[in-house]
Amino acid sequence: MSATRRFRIAAIPADGVGQEVVAAGRTVLDALAAGSGAFGFDWQEFGWGCEYYARTGRMMAEDGLTVLKDFDAIYFGAVGWPGVPDHISLWGLRLAICQNFDLWANVRPVRFLPGVRSPLRKADHIELDWVVVRENSEGEYAGLGGRNLSGRGPGHEVAVQSALFTEVGCERIIRFAFDLARTRIRRKVSSVTKSNAQQYGMVLWDDVFRRVARDYPDVETESVLVDAMSAKFVLRPEDLSVVVASNLHADILSDLGSALAGSLGLAASANLNPEGRFPSMFEPVHGSAPDIAGQGLANPIGAVGSAALMLDHLGLPGPAARLHAAIEATTAAGILTRDLGGTASTEDVTKALIDTLRG
Ligand SMILES: NC(=O)c1ccc[n+]([C@@H]2O[C@H](COP(=O)([O-])OP(=O)(O)OC[C@H]3O[C@@H](n4cnc5c(N)ncnc54)[C@H](O)[C@@H]3O)[C@@H](O)[C@H]2O)c1
């Protein structure tokens, strides 16, 4: 057996069900590592989030980014809790990490699992599998704008929220999508646009898409308006392989994709700095779900699927595949949380995953 490779992972469970699903994911990863003997994790957990904010007035430690910089990866839960405005919690932690670490590629696979009923009837007899590639550093979430003129009196304040599209930003994410398409059975990239209405940023996006596409003659392409793409997700998903979209468009479409696959609780994501200048961050797509937090009802599969993406990123494709297989075996056996129509708890699903890995 080869010498044990150890990985330093920063865990940031943050708020609500984030704490439950990160705990579940860590347990599953440790079981997988123990079973392999070839790799292991040195975890350090950071108690940042809305409770930390209530105590300190900050969402993360002042030197948080400096501390995180030296980890091999970050395993994140979800951020947000009633009492702290969502824009404060999101910008103070998740977006602070994504933007400062230039985690510009957000990969969000839409996976249909055995034993999980999709609201799409065609999912019963057609193989569906696509991945949303989200531009994760600029676009509509560039944080540019401001509020002013409240001095004019009640009802007269103005706000400007600008979207930023740079040629460099568009090109790197579109190239990433094409490179990803080349690794898939169906070599196709669908670009999501809104250039009919947004004549500057989205026209630049389209221009870059056409230019980059010329370097990948072996990859099919299409360019689809975001409104039409949301219909296509429902009506013709079998025609999708890699879907590349701006920060906001991809954020919305990937929630739609995970709902079509059965639940928001299933969706995994990787926030990547593909150059490896900073640690990449892995997190379920869902939020902190205050409506079910603390009750043991959270579906841990989105977080465990994100752990599988982390294993792939760390150069462990074999263990990543084993984790995906364990997820499939667990859902196929009907061990499902309430969001999927089942009665299993977070702990039941976690235990089933571990039993499958050990079996
Ligand atoms: N990446 C993030 O950290 C992130 C993403 C989205 C929302 N948020 C924050 O989360 C908070 C709640 O937002 P929201 O309600 O719009 O979205 P949400 O994703 O937290 O919840 C939406 C619905 O999905 C369900 N759900 C979510 N995760 C689940 C899981 N693992 N298992 C079973 N069901 C699950 C919830 O119960 C709820 O009904 C807000 O503060 C928001 O800002 C954070």
List keywords for this structure.
359 residues; alpha/beta; two-stranded antiparallel ribbon; binds nicotinamide-adenine-dinucleotide
Write the layout of secondary structure elements.
Blueprint: E1 5-14, H1 17-36, E2 39-45, H2 50-56, H3 64-68, E3 73-78, H4 86-100, E4 105-111, E5 129-135, E6 139-148, E7 158-164, H5 167-181, E8 188-193, H6 201-213, E9 220-225, H7 226-235, E10 242-245, H8 247-261, E11 268-272, E12 280-284, H9 301-313, H10 317-332, H11 346-358
Helix pairs in contact: 1-9, 1-11, 5-6, 7-8, 9-10, 10-11
The structure holds nicotinamide-adenine-dinucleotide.
Q: What does this protein structure show overall?
A:
- The chain has 359 residues and is α/β, with parallel strands linked by helices.
- The chain is built from eleven helices and twelve strands.
- α5 crosses α6, α7 runs parallel beside α8 and α9 runs antiparallel to α10.
- The longest helix is centred in the first third of the chain and has 20 residues.
- The radius of gyration is 20 Å and the shape is globular.
- The structure holds nicotinamide-adenine-dinucleotide.
- The site of nicotinamide-adenine-dinucleotide has 23 residues, from α1 and α4.
